[in-house]
Amino acid sequence: MKTLAAFAIVVALAAPLSGAATPRTQTGACRVPCMHDWRREMARLGEPWLDRVGSHIAQQCADSSRVDFSGVTSNPRAGWDGLIADAQQQLQNNATIPKAVAWWRTIIRLAQDEKAHLARGLADCARRNVAKPKADPDRADSAGSASLDSLLSSRGTRGVDYDLDPIYRSWVPAYLKRMVDYHYASHEMHLDASGPVWIQRGGRRIAVGGSDARLQLRPGDIISTGGGGSVRISSPGQSPDTKLGENSAVSLGQDVACLSFTKYPNQQFGLHLIAGTLYWLTTGARLQANCAVLTTKDFSVSVRGTKFTITSKPGAATNEISVDVTEGEVEIEDRDGRMATVSEGESERLTYGLGKMLWMVDNQCRRSVDFRLFDRTNNLQWPADPSKVWFIDSGGLLAQLVSCIPGAKICYGAAAPGQEGEWGIGINGNARCPDCCQTCPAANQRVDTSRVLTCQIPGAVK
Fold first, then answer.
1. Residue boundaries of the structural domains of the chain
2. For the structural domain made of 355-453, what CATH number should be given?
3. What is the residue-level pLDDT of the chain in tens, covering all 462 positions?
């Protein structure tokens, strides 16, 4: 019956839109776009019928407060609640089918994100639609000051508190936290903008694209960029600078964009953080974040609404990133587009820029032989698992392809039971051997090494 339920939902989701649409939420002039790219998210699940689901949802995402899913779900409540309820039912019906469980959990998570995102967006809209206070000569929504000139000043008369404090900073390691959690006051801010860039003050947006000027930012200002626009914000004599990336939009807490920090002289990699709205406030309000991206030269680690810790060990030949997830899900993508996902309670250790070694070992002893590899360069048993032993039967041939850090010396050690023989640097890596190591090749290169183990003369190696 569970299999039949899975087929039933496929038919329902792939069906054309029904003629009887359920009532949709009326929100006046408020339009809240979707948070997720549903086409991309559904395509990642690898099922053609889910591609059609993603396309249908994406077509309505220009205004997620008015979505109608009556054509893609059997639930009469055809909004986000209906989609969630239907997916939860299908999750129960298909609980014994691992692939289906993954589908429905993903759909439930995304739809719940959208529901919460919609609630926040409508609340923001309601606040924006309330009656505006009387004109203030110090505000850009005043009739006489709605221009770029009103923001320019050679020197402000009072300091502006610059407070960037991500709400997810609990998962940032201490050495990274110093880069993203800081506060200082400044009388001047320099803006270098290109493309569509605006400053929103009160109820008015002022175009500042193409400017290179000193700005007097004031509490409540919001800086935003449109498609193809970028802006760099700095304060004379202060460090670090802050940069808003290309093709980003930061507006009213609804659209996603990321901030990136300029590279310190001694910094091994750049940190890219965070999505949301950049507020310049003296009230202590913080940047509302719903994604974070840590980037090295080889990896990009992106997070959405989760708690995690990251450590990075950059090196000349390789990078290593360890990701531990305590809540939600983390997506990791390397520079070649390969992706991995780390879920709640899991850890992932990633390396990039590795060489390859093929070890071919012919056991000509009358008994089995235990075989190990060691990283002599780092004085470590290798691979990392200290219990890793390859067993080679009598007359057997081992052909083992392993990864290694370029330039490292990888040595082998082997032993046969009953003291019939020991080879290389020994099974415990403590014997001397002048020619039992090979140098790991450059990244993405491979070397082949062969050895013949005989037991007539203990310790002999051919």
1. 2-128, 150-295, 306-352, 355-453
2. 2.60.40
3. 333 233 233 323 333 222 333 333 333 457 777 877 788 888 888 788 888 888 888 877 777 777 777 666 665 556 788 888 888 888 888 878 878 888 888 888 888 888 877 777 676 665 555 433 333 333 333 322 334 444 443 333 333 333 333 333 343 344 434 433 333 344 455 566 666 667 766 667 777 766 555 555 554 556 665 555 665 555 554 443 344 333 222 221 222 233 333 333 333 222 222 222 333 332 233 333 334 444 444 455 554 444 555 555 555 445 565 666 665 566 665 554 556 677 777 776 666 667 888 899 999 888 888 898 888 766 565 555 556 788 888 888 888 888 777 778 888 999 887 666 788 888 888 888 878 888 888 777 889 988 998 875 444 443
Contact 135, 143 (CB under 8 A): yes
Tokens of 419: 């003291």
Question: Could you tell me if 274 and 259 are in contact, meaning their C-beta atoms sit under 8 angstroms apart?
Answer: yes
For the whole model, what pTM was predicted?
Answer: 0.30
Identify residue 433 by its one-letter amino acid code. C
Q: Are strands 355-363 and 446-453 parallel, antiparallel or unpaired?
A: parallel
The b-or-e profile of 257-278 (16+ CB within 10 A means b, else e) is bbbbbeeeeeeebbbbbbbbbb
Q: Which two tokens stand for residue 136?
A: 């203030």
Q: Please, what sign has the CA dihedral across residues 405, 407, 408, 409?
A: positive
Burial of 103 (0-12, 13-18, 19+ CB in 10 A): buried
Radius of gyration of the chain from its Cα atoms, rounded to whole angstroms: 30
